[in-house]
Amino acid sequence: MKKRIEYDASEKGLRAVLKDYQEIALRVIWATPEGLGSKAVWDRVNAELKPNTISRASVINFLESMRKMGVLKGDEKTGKGGHHWIYYPAMYESKFKQYIASQLIESLMKSFPEETRHAVKMLGSLVASGTVRAP
Fold first, then answer.
1. Is 6 a domain residue?
2. Is residue 50 part of a domain?
3. Strand pairing of 72-79 and 36-37?
4. For residue 1, is it within any domain?
5. CA-to-CA distance for 99 and 70, rounded, in angstroms?
6. Could you say which of 14, 56, 71, 128 is the most buried, measured as most Cβ atoms within 10 Å of its Cβ?
7. 42: left (phi over 0), alpha (psi -120 to 50) or beta
8. Own/partner long-range contacts of 68-77 (Cβ < 8 Å, ≥24 apart)
9. pLDDT tens column, 82-106
10. What is the pTM of this model?
């Protein structure tokens, strides 16, 4: 099952779709292309969250949902304590943002197809005319 992306328009940047610990976890993995296990990610997330903490289960559940969505990839390893995953970036930040935007537009197209087409067309016209600057 594909995880649904929820967008909070009151937030900016990645916090519009991710909780603080989730953004930290992704940034940790993006900065470590050789991959990390969930414990290492959890340790680094909690180091950044201090004095707050997040459970290891929350971090593992998030990493797994990102793996299933294709944002992360993973290799299952067997070792001390049983099976565990090593997580690697499948998408870096820019590609992830594009993915979020496409998922939001796709959702809007399903709910409001004509209005979304019109809004996208108008935005394109504004960018082309220089009225609105593309980032």
1. no
2. yes
3. unpaired
4. no
5. 10
6. 71
7. alpha
8. 68/1, 68/2, 68/3, 69/2, 69/3, 71/26, 71/96, 71/99, 72/29, 74/35, 75/35
9. 888 999 999 999 999 999 999 999 9
10. 0.85
Give tens-digit pLDDT for 46-70.
999 999 999 999 999 999 999 999 9
Strands of 36-37's sheet in order across:
36-37, 82-89, 72-79
Q: What is the CATH number of the domain that holds 35?
A: 1.10.10.10
Q: Which two tokens stand for residue 57?
A: 């289960």
- Within this chain, do residues 24 and 83 fall inside the same structural domain, yes or no? yes
Pick the closest to residue 38 from 2, 94, 88 (CA basis).
88
Q: Same structural domain for residues 34 and 53? A: yes
- Asked if 36 and 52 sit in the same domain, the reply is yes
69 and 120 inside one domain: no
Contact 42, 59 (CB under 8 A): yes
